[in-house]
């Protein structure tokens, strides 16, 4: 039974990369080295060790389960393509780089982090931004919430929840936003669910998926009058359900009026990399923070999400966990550093452009169906970007 070619190739590439990095300085082990032959080693762990092909065969068996041979042929690894190999290579390289001496590690990680952050800020028109790289795409917003709490509550570091108790913080998000996001934030921040305010969307006119700005204004006023502290607003540039973009310009003005932080997420942020960007999405570049999910936008496996933000106090960013003094944590950016260089500016833009065109074509086909009754006025200016469709196309070599 053959090892899946993609899995074998990945193992080969990673193995060769390690050999190149070591610059032929690996010492050959003594042939007469003592070999372990203990009989009490449990399970399949062999005393003499196994070669890479055997281990990859075991991994493949675990991935495919116990299917019969004729049915297992349908369970092939997704073809990640060459650009995907660069992202996967980044994880192995990060582990390898982490063993360098401290000073060399510091210089290398600083370069990787500064390069990647600069490229992303330029690509997505987010001037003078800092970046936080994270595996869970909610983690960036969580750390931003901590930053804003530290900013508004001066004694938070010492007093903790006591300062929040005297003036309860409020986080606002759209009812059309991601389900479960508010509860996840409250759980991680140790806040009661009453700190989360879900803002209804327009129902009488306009989009049924855009946040009602006038109603939000009233909700904030009510909270201020009751002694609460409006803290942060989560807006959407592409809602999960219908791909609508909130009125980000008006929301930014409202946030400035109440000294609130404005965070934006959603797939339409990808279109910031294109030559033409609708004004509704372009307004996201003036917001306090945005989260980019480059993995699904560019068809890259195992790359982190990125939250770009602007804040003047590095000590508060450190306290919130947005920056770290540990060089190894900065290596999270390495898979992206490799992948962005491999694709290049033109390759990145081409992928996002094709995804956008596919989604517009899909939207036009949907509008021709009789059962589609929803308003499409803001989809035309801010199209739904169906990256899942594009990822399938790109993985087929299109």
Short note summarizing the structure:
It comes from Mesitornis unicolor. This protein is an alpha/beta fold and 398 residues long. It has 18 helices and 7 strands.
Low-confidence stretches: 23-33, 70-77, 373-383, 388-398
CATH topology of one domain: Aspartate Aminotransferase, domain 2
| Order of SSEs | HHHHHEHHHEHEHEHEHEHEHHHHH
Quantity of strands, as a count:
7
The CATH class assignment of one domain is: Alpha Beta
Sheet/helix structural class = alpha/beta
Distance between the termini: 30 Å
How many distinct helices? Answer: 18
Q: How does the overall form come out from the CA principal axes? A: globular
Rg of Cα set: 25 Å
Could you give me the name of the CATH homologous superfamily of one domain?
A: Type I PLP-dependent aspartate aminotransferase-like (Major domain)
Strand content: 5-15%
The main β sheet shows up as: 7 strands, mixed
Strand order of the largest sheet: 1-7-6-5-4-2-3
Family: Belongs to the group II decarboxylase family.
Keywords: Decarboxylase, Lyase, Pyridoxal phosphate
GO molecular function: carboxy-lyase activity; pyridoxal phosphate binding
Pfam families: Pyridoxal_deC (PF00282)
């Amino acid at each position: 039974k053959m090892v899946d070619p993609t899995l074998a190739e990945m193992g080969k590439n990673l193995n060769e990369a390690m050999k190149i990095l070591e610059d032929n300085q690996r010492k050959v082990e003594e042939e007469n080295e003592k070999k372990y032959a203990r009989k009490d080693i449990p399970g399949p762990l062999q005393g003499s060790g196994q070669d890479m092909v055997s281990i990859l065969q075991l991994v493949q068996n675990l991935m495919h389960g116990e299917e019969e041979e004729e049915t297992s042929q349908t369970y092939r690894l997704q073809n990640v393509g060459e650009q995907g190999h660069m992202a996967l290579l980044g994880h192995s390289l990060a582990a390898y780089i982490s063993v360098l001496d401290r000073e060399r590690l510091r210089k290398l990680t600083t370069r990787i982090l500064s390069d990647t952050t600069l490229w992303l800020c330029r690509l997505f028109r987010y001037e003078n931004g800092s970046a936080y790289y994270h595996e869970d795409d909610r983690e960036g917003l969580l750390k931003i919430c901590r930053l804003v709490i530290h900013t508004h509550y001066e004694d938070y570091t010492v007093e903790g929840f006591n300062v929040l108790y005297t003036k309860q913080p409020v986080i606002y998000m759209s009812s059309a936003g991601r389900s479960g996001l508010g509860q996840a934030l409250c759980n991680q921040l140790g806040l009661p669910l009453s700190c989360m305010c879900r803002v209804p969307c327009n129902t009488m006119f306009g989009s049924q998926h855009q946040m009602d700005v006038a109603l939000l204004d009233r909700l904030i006023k009510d909270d201020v009058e009751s002694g609460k502290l409006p803290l942060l607003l989560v807006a959407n540039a592409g809602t999960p359900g219908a791909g609508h973009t909130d009125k980000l310009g008006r929301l930014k003005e409202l946030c400035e009026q109440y000294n609130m932080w404005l965070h934006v997420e959603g797939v339409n942020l990808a279109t910031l990399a294109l030559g033409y960007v609708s004004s509704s999405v372009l307004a996201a570049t003036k917001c306090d923070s945005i989260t980019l999910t480059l993995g699904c936008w560019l068809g890259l496996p195992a790359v982190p999400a990125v939250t770009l933000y602007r804040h003047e106090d590095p000590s508060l960013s450190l306290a919130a966990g947005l920056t770290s003094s540990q060089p190894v944590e900065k290596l999270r950016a390495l898979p992206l550093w490799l992948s962005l260089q491999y694709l290049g500016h033109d390759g990145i833009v081409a992928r996002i452009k094709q995804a956008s065109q596919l989604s517009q074509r899909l939207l036009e086909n949907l509008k021709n169906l009789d059962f589609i009754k929803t308003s499409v006025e803001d989809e035309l200016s801010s199209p739904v970007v169906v990256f899942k469709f594009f990822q399938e196309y790109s993985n087929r070599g299109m």
